[in-house]
């Protein structure tokens, strides 16, 4: 079913208005903490869309994806904080304070470079073998960050790097409330709009990639690599490009994360996070942008809903907290995945192709 | 014959050797195809036919010998560059992109071309050649029957405008009627002047279709010559035709 252009336009503007009002509505109904949660959800959506390129389009199973988020985050943490004064007191007495907008493209490039670094040795691997190598890669990056505090204190080890400069847009710091047209916008609202713009950009790029010649070549590689190279596709370069593009999305998201949070430490980049992002892609519907966004929103909100819902519920029922919400999260999450795989194996919003595949199965 | 005596063959293979690890699958093969010729390469399972074809397409690297195509040495030319030079492979087991539609499969075949405006016309030409595919253009290739998938694989290869079409076991796993249909199409394509290397286990059918043939056994060519002679020879009769 195709909406007439006129109606599609109206829907678009209504959705945009709703998104712009969302932080105010959330703030009024649920409290400011939830606006912050929405900000994080958008960082996850960007990550999931980046991983979707690698896993959903090119069919390369990556279990270490969070490493690129870490690379982006540490790029800004090192070049936008007083930290490097510890390692190089004479060179940078006050630390390095590069503007965010300069670091952002550089961090994307560095993350893309790490993507190629992971892709190059794994070109001949597929499926489970590739998954194991990428898993190892993710852990190597995290362990490096954890241990690069001696002999030279580069990353400050497990303590992480704090006092990262806030993101500034046209000389306005997003870390303080701003008043625009008589409306006071708290910091979390400002970040909400910034992240919304970035998410929109990432969605736009994803859509263009999917419909492009490159996107079709990735899908051909996913379906049959030998046949793809018999079509004249340079499979080596295109697989490296998939790793690099996915990594760049992760790097951008990581840079935004560091500026927003003001603090990074290796524990934010554990294997569990990689798996979480992969689950967002799979749960929502691999290869379908709308599905991946939905997966990102659901899985980013789930732990918060549990944290804010389960504890009071238990208090009311039993008068004490019986089950820790954190462990309940994993239980529910695992259960949800099993149910999903049994009843909706192609995801909540299956991709166009997967849906057609299921339709023809029924017809046959 | 379409060729003139002073032109070199379109494809010329000299003493080609291919090895997997330490095992030699192809042990010094000489073979040539003139422009416009339909040549069959027959042999039993495990003779090294597919290895040979994959090496010609650039998917495997030779351990020794030389491949010359259109006057160029191909040994160091990557697989994707060979497609642009006009070599197209229809892989063993067809290799269709299962979760792409028939139309998308065919478009992938035109990936290496840069004359975008002509692609739509060629697509229609393929649908005329394979009317069955026209009916199923929106369907996922993985849901088609084996014969239809073979048609997709052949049409997809033709979309790259090849000068040399390499077919790996087009009859594999197909019903007899469908095999007849596929081979009719191969004859039609050959009649248009395309050079074809047809690799088959079905020796009788392949030799009836081709003008000339090679017989491969354990990685080496044991016989070659005009199809009629090969069909009549005692060695082929006893080994492949059960006579």
Number of DSSP E strands of chain B: 10
Instruction: Tell me the overall shape of chain A.
Output: globular
Largest interface: A-B, 25 and 33 residues
Shape descriptor of chain B reads globular
Low-confidence stretches of chain B: none
What fold name goes in the CATH topology slot of the largest domain in chain B? Rossmann fold
Explain the layout of strands and helices.
The complex is a heterodimer of chains A (364) and B (243).
Chain A: H1 5-30, H2 32-57, H3 66-79, E1 80-81, H4 84-87, E2 96-97, H5 100-119, H6 127-147, E3 168-169, E4 172-173, E5 178-180, E6 183-185, H7 187-211, H8 213-223, H9 225-230, H10 235-261, H11 271-284, H12 289-318, H13 325-343, H14 352-363
Helix pairs in contact in A: 1-2, 1-7, 2-7, 2-10, 2-11, 2-12, 3-5, 3-6, 3-10, 5-10, 7-8, 8-10, 11-12, 12-13
Chain B: E1 11-20, E2 23-33, E3 38-43, H1 49-57, E4 64-69, E5 72-73, H2 79-84, E6 87-90, H3 102-109, H4 116-129, H5 131-135, H6 146-158, E7 164-168, H7 176-191, E8 195-200, H8 203-209, E9 212-217, E10 220-226, H9 227-232, H10 234-240
Parallel strand pairs in B: 3-8, 3-9, 6-7, 7-8
Antiparallel strand pairs in B: 1-2, 1-4, 4-5, 9-10
């Amino acid at each position: 079913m195709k909406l007439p252009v006129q109606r599609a336009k109206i829907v678009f503007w209504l959705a945009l208005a709703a998104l712009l009002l969302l932080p105010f509505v959330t703030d009024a109904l649920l409290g400011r903490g939830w606006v912050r949660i929405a900000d994080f959800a958008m960082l996850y959506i960007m990550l999931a869309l980046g991983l979707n390129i690698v896993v959903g389009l090119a069919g390369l199973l990556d279990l270490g994806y969070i490493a690129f988020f870490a690379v982006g985050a540490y790029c800004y943490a090192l070049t936008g904080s007083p930290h490097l004064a510890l390692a190089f007191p004479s060179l940078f007495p006050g630390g390095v304070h590069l503007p965010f907008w300069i670091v952002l493209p550089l961090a994307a490039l560095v993350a893309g470079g790490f993507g190629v670094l992971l892709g190059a040795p794994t070109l001949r691997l597929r499926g489970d073998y590739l998954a194991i190598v990428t898993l190892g890669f993710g852990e190597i990056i995290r362990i490096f960050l954890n241990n690069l505090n001696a002999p030279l204190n580069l990353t400050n080890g497990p303590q992480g790097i704090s006092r990262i400069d806030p993101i500034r847009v046209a000389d306005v710091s997003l870390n303080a409330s701003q008043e625009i047209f008589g409306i006071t916008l708290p910091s979390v609202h400002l970040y909400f709009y910034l992240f919304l713009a970035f998410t929109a950009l990432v969605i736009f790029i994803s859509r263009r990639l999917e419909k492009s010649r490159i996107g079709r070549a990735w899908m051909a590689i996913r379906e049959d690599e030998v046949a793809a190279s018999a079509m004249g596709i340079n499979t080596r370069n295109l697989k490296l490009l998939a790793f690099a593009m996915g990594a760049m999305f992760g790097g951008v998201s990581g840079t935004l994360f560091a500026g927003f949070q003001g603090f990074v430490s290796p524990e934010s980049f554990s294997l569990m996070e990689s798996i979480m992002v992969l689950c967002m892609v799979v749960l929502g519907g691999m290869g379908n942008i709308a599905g991946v966004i939905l997966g990102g929103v659901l899985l980013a909100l789930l732990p918060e809903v549990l944290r804010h819902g389960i504890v009071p519920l238990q208090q009311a029922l039993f008068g004490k907290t019986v089950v820790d919400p954190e462990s309940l999260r994993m239980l529910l999450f695992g259960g949800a995945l099993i149910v999903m795989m049994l009843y909706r194996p192609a995801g909540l919003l299956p991709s166009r192709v997967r849906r057609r595949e299921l339709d023809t199965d029924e017809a046959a | 014959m379409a060729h003139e005596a002073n032109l070199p063959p379109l494809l010329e293979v000299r003493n080609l050797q291919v090895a997997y690890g330490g095992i030699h699958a192809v042990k010094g093969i000489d073979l040539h195809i003139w422009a416009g010729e339909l040549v069959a390469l027959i042999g039993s399972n495990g003779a090294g036919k597919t290895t040979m074809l994959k090496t010609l397409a650039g998917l495997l690297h030779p351990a020794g010998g030389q491949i010359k195509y259109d006057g160029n040495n191909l040994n160091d030319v990557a697989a994707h560059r060979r497609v642009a030079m006009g070599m197209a492979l229809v892989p063993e087991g067809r290799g269709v992109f299962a979760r792409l539609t028939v139309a998308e499969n065919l478009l992938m075949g035109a990936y290496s071309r840069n004359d975008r405006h002509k692609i739509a016309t060629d697509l229609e030409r393929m649908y005329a050649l394979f009317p069955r595919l026209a009916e199923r253009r929106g369907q996922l290739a993985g849901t088609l029957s084996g014969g239809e998938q073979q048609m997709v694989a052949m049409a997809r290869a033709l979309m790259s405008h090849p000068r040399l079409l390499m077919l790996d076991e087009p009859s594999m796993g197909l019903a007899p009627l469908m095999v007849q249909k596929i081979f009719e199409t191969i004859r039609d394509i050959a009649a248009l002047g395309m050079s074809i290397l047809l690799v088959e286990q079905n020796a009788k059918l392949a030799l009836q279709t081709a003008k000339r043939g090679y017989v491969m056994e354990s990685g080496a060519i044991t016989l070659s010559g005009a199809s009629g002679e090969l069909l009549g020879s005692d060695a082929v009769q006893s080994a492949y035709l059960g006579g």
